[in-house]
Amino acid sequence: MKPNPLESLDHVVRDALGQLAAIDDLADLNGAEASLIGRRSAFTSLQKSLGALAPEDRARAGAALQEARRRVEDAFEERRRVLDSGAWERRMREDRLDLGDVIAERVVWSPRAGHPGLVAITQRELEDVFVAMGFSVAEGPEVESDWYNFEALNIPPAHPARGMWDTFYVEMGEPETVVLRTHTSPTQIHLMEEALASGTLPIHSVMPGRCYRRDTPDARHLAAFHQVEGLVVDRGIAFADLAGVIETFTRAYFGDDIEARLRPAYFPFTEPSAEFEITCTICRGAGCRTCSQTGWIELGGCGMLDPAVFEAVGLDPEVWSGFAFGFGIDRCAQMRHQIADMRALTENDVRFLEQFS
Ligand code: FA5
Known about the structure:
alpha+beta; binds adenosine-5'-[phenylalaninyl-phosphate]; 3-stranded antiparallel sheet; BirA Bifunctional Protein, domain 2; single chain; 10 strands
């Protein structure tokens, strides 16, 4: 009788299962594949030895060998599955990237508190200066009738002075012409009317707000800009009072080293009138593009109230006197912070805006 080559089959299977159980790393398992179930395995050499069996025994022995090999292959795959999931977990653990900080800082948009823009900040600072000097703060409408914006200010229709203000018209003619106010001076009229009606004269007020002109934007002009109007209506007011207020304001807001001057000017609603200028802070008076090489920047106009304005609102110019001024808020911001081109105020560049938080 020929020896049965499959006598050792049980032993081969047990040995293979034992080796498998001892492997706890996927790389080792892959390395052992050939010797456990592949080309170099005992199963392969047993397969070859089947040829020595009698044909009637060969089929049965082949089936037994196949069955034994499948057990080991199944165990091998099961081990791979177990090690694979362990390796995966380990890899997950090792490669884990803590995104907490990254997400908080970069990915998730966290709202940041904004802050008022430079013009709003400047308006508040100017108000503070004037409030400290005893003025109250009032506001007027941005859309005005022709009467408030021009006529009550002694600028009748077709008056040449209308050319001083390039106007945006909202409505022309009947029932009345309506404009976007070209300056804050119409608020003077509202205030005088209200004070007269409510018996609250005298008036010491400033009136900040937005104005509009068909001006082409350039280094010191915008089409929508801001002014702060000042109005004093009282008894016995003189030009020296106006000059004193302007001087005090300049020192308080720009500091002692900035030179200011009043130059004779013309406004239909004040007489005498003056333009108020300071040394250009960009070039310190040497002359530059911002000040058109003059060394001076005009901040506003001012003057003693014209009797025609008192008469337009029904105040007796024999009893009441006063002065008014109107400064550009954007110009004040520009000079205070040495902004060479005023258009920077409207460009919404955060690098610019954040400088004034
Ligand atoms: C006036 O608007 C007069 N209402 C001022 C006034 C008030 C005179 C009370 C007398 C009594 P003027 O057009 O010069 O004046 O403008 C005054 C200031 O507003 C200017 O000096 C400037 O600082 C500012 N301003 C005028 N136009 C613009 C503009 N397009 N962009 C930015 N600022 C401007």
